[in-house]
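S., here's the first fold you wanted:
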Amino acid sequence: MLVIQYTGRLIYFVGRVSHAQSHMSIVVVGSINTDLIIQVPRFAGRDETVLGEGGYTVSQGGKGANQAVAAIAGGLPVHMVGKVGNDAFGDDALAGLRAAGVLCDYVQRSDTHSTGLATIFLDPEARNSITVAPGANAQITLKDIEDAGELISSADVVMMQLEIPVDACRRAAELARAGGALVMLDPAPAHLQTLDFLHLVDYLTPNELEAEALTGIALIDEQYARQNAQALLEMGPGNIAITLGSRGSYMANSSGHFKIEARPVDAVDTTGAGDAFCGFLATALAKGLGFRQAAEIASAAASLSVTRAGARTNHIDWEKVLGFMQA
């Protein structure tokens, strides 16, 4: 049963998804990685070695997989399109996604490339520095996308990131747009090759560094955020959501601009905040919420995500985020 609750500012969907909504789906076309996480007193400079604090943690990640796990918290079917190696890391990655409820029929195995690997360094202020070896993610081909074409074109929301080949993202966007799906692109890592298909994107979700890389405008304060968002809109996307870390997020579309302040929390690890934001934004949009309402929920999810270590948001669900917003 689905209950609609109105608090005066937002309309929330609370409870399980009804049978009438069960046809809704989200498709994530993106990366699947193994994360190697090391706590450090500070980030290393050029030609410098810094000793980590204690041991290290191996966990599952990849922007695509992280966003898929975040999106599944809303109760809608989430499909993953991607590629892992034919190795133990690949086995673990698939097992983790399936355990979370993500459907993996279109995740391929590579016999020639290993599962993607990310090394994540965390400093005492919960900031991160990440280096990614794409591995099998870089081997996603246009044929892989075409093979999943019917799935992509029949989705409500299709999410993509740039840890896979740009050509694959472009083709997925074309198929999604042809089928009437909302197209969401997280331009991470940002590069200018994305500019030629931003007109196919309904929701562009860069962080402040990625937004600056695309426009050349530094997000020093809200005035510059407005200029940056407007410049991104002029590149073709329908809606812009720039995540600003502890400063919240800045939204823009043809109807206007607005900023959402971050809710104060005790941050432990900020690695997965952007992925939580994207996953919950996609779910809220698929449920039919408007941009401002969806962005409020996504922002709250991002705040909650940093209270535990690791890039995955298995500890967050839809009801927990809504409860956090009302508390």
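And the second, which I think is the more interesting of the pair:
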Amino acid sequence: MATDIKVPSLGESVPEATVTKWLKRPGEAVIIDEPVAELETDKITLEVYAPAAGTLAEILADEGANVPVGAVLGRITEGVTGDLAQTAPHPLPLPAGGEREGPAKREGEGQLVLERSGPAVRKLIEEAGLDTGKIAPTGPGGRITKADVLTARAPPPPSVTPTPAVNEREVRVRMTRLRRRIAERLKAAQNTAAMLTTFNEIDMTEAIGLRERHRDSFEKKHGVRLGFMSIFLKAAIVALQELPPVNAEIDGDDIVYKNHYDIGVAVGTEQGLVVPVVRDADRLSFAEIEQTIAALARKARDGKLTIEDLSGGTFTITNGGVYGSLMSTPILNPPQSGILGMHKIERRPVALGDKVEIRPMMYVALSYDHRIVDGREAVTFLVRIKECVEEPSRILFDV
């Protein structure tokens, strides 16, 4: 009896995925819930798990294939059947010393392996004209399986990210599904929203002092570093509560005002930018926010984010300052109506009353959808962020 390996549900509005890698080959044993393949969607990379124990009998969707939800990727059979039965265990006899030799084959061992490999496998080897000594056996008892022959016969797959030769002027590499989706969403945001950006600057003296005073005790108690992101996230919630349009979205002819605060935090990975969501951030403490962000960042770097981690955000914060950006205009994350951009902290002269002092300053930017957010509201939003970050006690006392 065969069990189908199917493409799992990929989340709302994600109809298909790309097979990026098979972790098992035909003829290999699998156990239930063992990862057998990797898929990439326009949001995440996820593993497909074996629905039953047995042997991977065949692969129906090759690497690089686009597959819809519910499509059959391969099949698992109970035990060993068909051509795979030819590779059932028949251990090679041990030499007189009682120990098998290492990787180098003894004289005549290749022929013995060939004879014990079964007629189907022998026929494949003979038709392909392969040298048994150059085939890496993976079957029980060190024998050659059908999959081993197919692997040895197949040309090596092209590199996903080829390294150009010294005299090569350009290299063409197909965009990953995630990169294509990022491009589509960013361009759609520009085409759809009436996007505008307003700027302000923040004196980070108090925020830096607060972190310096409590950094060690905070990390010792909560097991996570105290960063600026939790301060900005809390400040953003204060501003969002006072200016609901920035936390709203347009749905057709309606404006949907959100009374919950699920804040997306942009994370850069090798595959591209992803925005996992901190759920109900208004109900979390500073420590819980930092712990949640750290956990989501680890999942992003390891490619373990789920659809649930990435969906449903109401507002986004991105920090280009970690890469050295001094100022930028962040692009909206549809269907959201606002995104806050943090930047590099730079010490520069600032006029304070009648004197000039050197202060750690940060430029901040709010990009917003002018269809729903007016300029007055956008400017007021950034002013509120500035007040809360420059004097963090405002957040604590709600003033």
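Why I say that: The longest strand covers residues 355-369. The chain is about 30% helix and 25% strand.

Talk tomorrow,
H.
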